[in-house]
Every structure is written in C-alpha cells, then in structure tokens.
Amino acid sequence: MIILGIETSCDETSVGIVDDELAIRANVIASQIDLHSRTGGVVPEVAARKHVESIIWTLEEALYSASLRLSDVTAVAVTSTHGLLGCLSVGVSFAKALSYSLQIPLIGVHHIVGHIYGPLLAAKRFPFPHLCLTASGGHTCLVRVNGHHSYQILGDTLDDAAGEAFDKAARVLGLPFPGGPIIDNLSRSGDAKAFLFPRPLMRSKSRQFSFSGLKTDFLRRVRQMGDVEPHLHDLAASFQEAVIETLVRKTTDAALVERIDTITLAGGVAANSRLRIMMSEVAERRRLTVFAPPRSLCTDNGAMVAAAGLFRLQDGLVSGLDLDAQASGQLI
Ligand code: KG4
Ligand code: ZN
Questions:
Q1: Are residues 102 and 114 in contact, defined by beta-carbon separation less than 8 angstroms?
Q2: Of residues 18, 8, 97, 13, the one with CA closest to residue 311
Q3: What is the tens place of the pLDDT at every residue in 147-185?
Q4: What is the pLDDT of residue 181?
Q5: Ligand 1 pocket test: which of 36, 82, 276, 299 has the largest number of ligand atoms within 8 Å of its C-beta?
C-alpha cells in the first residue's frame, strides 16, 4: 500500500508518502517561514493563499522523489481537523479532488493525531499504552495513547501553547519568527541560571500547562532591562529552561502516576535540543524510556499524516467526500 499524506494546517505545505511497512518514500515540506517572518507571525489568509500556490508542485516533487505515479497511490490522508481553517480547507479540498478523480479512499486525520504518529515512523514500533508529549505553536498536550485510535488527553494548556510562548518571547527580544529554533540556538551559549523565571503549575498535581504568566514575567523583565543585547543568550537560555523544565517534570510525573514506561516526543517543540537532553536524563533516573524522532518528523510534515492514515485505513476508518475542515475537534 502507498499512502499519500497532505498537511496544510498552518505554515508548511507538505506531502509525504509512506508504505505499509512504514518506510518513508518521500516527505517534501514547503516552508512559508520567509513569508511569515516579515510579519512576525502567521497571517492565516496569507498562509492559505501560499498553500494554494505550493500544493501541486509539492505533490509532484514528492511523487518524483519516490519514483511513483499518482496511479500507484492506494489512499490519500489529509489533516482535516485542528489548525487554521482556511489553511486546512486547501489541503482537504485538494485531497478530496485526488480521492474523487483517482477513485481511492480519503482519510481525514486530526493534526495532533498526525503528530502522535511522527515517532512511530522513526521507531517502527509503538508500545501501548505510551505517553506522548506533543507541543507546537498551536497545542501542548499530554496524550495517553492506549492503542491506534484510542487516545486520552491527560493534560492540555490553559492559555498559550509551548511553541507560542517561545515565539512570543523571541518577538520580545526582537528576534524573527519562528522564535523556537532561534532561542534554542542562542541558549547553547547562554547561562540557564542567569535569570529565574516562573514555572507555572510545575509542582501542582494538575496535568494542565500554563505559559502566559511566564511570558508576562519575561516581558516585564526585558522591559526593565532596556538594552537586552548583552544578556540575549542568558535571557534565551533562562526562558527556555523554565519552559522545558515544566514540560519534562509534568510529563515524567504523569508517566509515573499512569504507570506508563514509554514517552514519545512530538510537535515542533520536540525539536528543542534542551528538551531532548533533559527528558532523556530525567527519564533515565526515573527508569522511563523516551523516544524522540528526528527533527524533521517533529515539525509539521505529510509523512506523519500518511502514517496515521495508514492505520485508519487498515481499520476501515475512512472518510466520505463530505469531509470538512474543522479548526478544532475531538481527538479521534
Ligand atoms: O508542529 P509545528 O511545526 O507547527 C504547529 O503545529 O504549530 O511547530 C512549530 C512550533 C513553533 O512555535 C516553533 O517556534 C516551535 O514549534 N519550534 C521550536 C523548535 N523548533 C520549532 N521550539 C523550541 N525549540 C525548537 N528547536
Ligand atoms: Zn503541528
């Protein structure tokens, strides 16, 4: 089986191709970063229009690099829920057209479920239950994955998503969008103990996350400082440490309480180098196994959507041509 996965929920137009042995035949990602760095964030209307421009050549490039033709495709999976509505609509309309014209099954995938399948593409095995921390610009979720199509959200964010917090902190520092990778890089030569920022809800039993208090405190401290240039690396490292320590502590605490011994990391923030190091260290102390896929499978990509689609197809969970894009919805 050859599954095509289409992802257009935010600012990456991506087409991935995965087979039923979970081999990634292609994973082409057309990033819109240059476009959005000019405005300091994603303008939904602009992003949707760019998806329209990019989707056809992204598909062509994916087929070309996999040495496949459209007629080889068994089914088309598409991110249909969770994201910017106009952006999702582009992918959903395109996938419907492919499904109709090629007479192949159409499979709608929730964006967070797509992220959950990113680690599987690299690990090739998926112990159940496992705990997935998926954190990006639009969500921060702790998901108990009981089996394929069986998810329980243990924790969510009450306000900002972790990636959003990184992006906003970067903006306060005058850095371009997206801020996460830049803060990650600056932090490598910064002192994470130089400034102490709050770790909201970190010690509470609640599995919810909250990052807006940290963001406000960061903004206040930066404003008081005036010239941030001499402290840029230390500010970045100290901010990053507060976000990452919170993510690691709450994830490993939840794993122990739930008696789950495998943690997977997904979503753009899972590309963070400090998160990957700290999670592995803490997990080792707590006798937990952590699986962090390569960075290209953490950020938005079509291959993860194709992988999620493969398991839905195998269990007959296909969509009709009435599939609609939805900005939010249940994790199914
Ligand atoms: O999953 P993703 O590609 O798109 C969304 O679904 O949002 O995640 C993008 C988010 C952005 O907020 C970006 O700043 C953040 O992930 N991100 C990072 C890193 N790489 C991407 N955050 C921290 N450290 C990184 N290395
Ligand atoms: Zn995402």
A1: no
A2: 18
A3: 999 999 999 999 999 999 999 999 999 999 999 999 999
A4: 97
A5: 299
Question: For the chain, which residues score pLDDT lower than 70?
Answer: none
Task: Report the interhelical angle of 232-258 vs 212-225 (nearest 10°).
Answer: 160
Q: Say if residues 132 and 148 touch (Cβ distance below 8 Å).
A: no
CA 177 to ligand 1: nearest atom? 14
- CATH match for 2-116+297-314 among 3.30.160.100, 3.90.1150.10, 3.30.420.40, 3.10.290.10: 3.30.420.40
Which backbone phi and psi does 320 adopt, to 5 degrees? -95, 175
Measured at the CA of 265, the angle between CA 124 and CA 329, to 5 degrees, comes to 100
Could you read off the pLDDT of 19-39 as tens digits, one per residue? 999 999 999 999 998 899 888
Buried b vs exposed e over 180-203: b needs ≥16 C-beta within 10 Å?
bbbbbebbeebebeebebbbbbbe
Class of domain 128-293: alpha beta
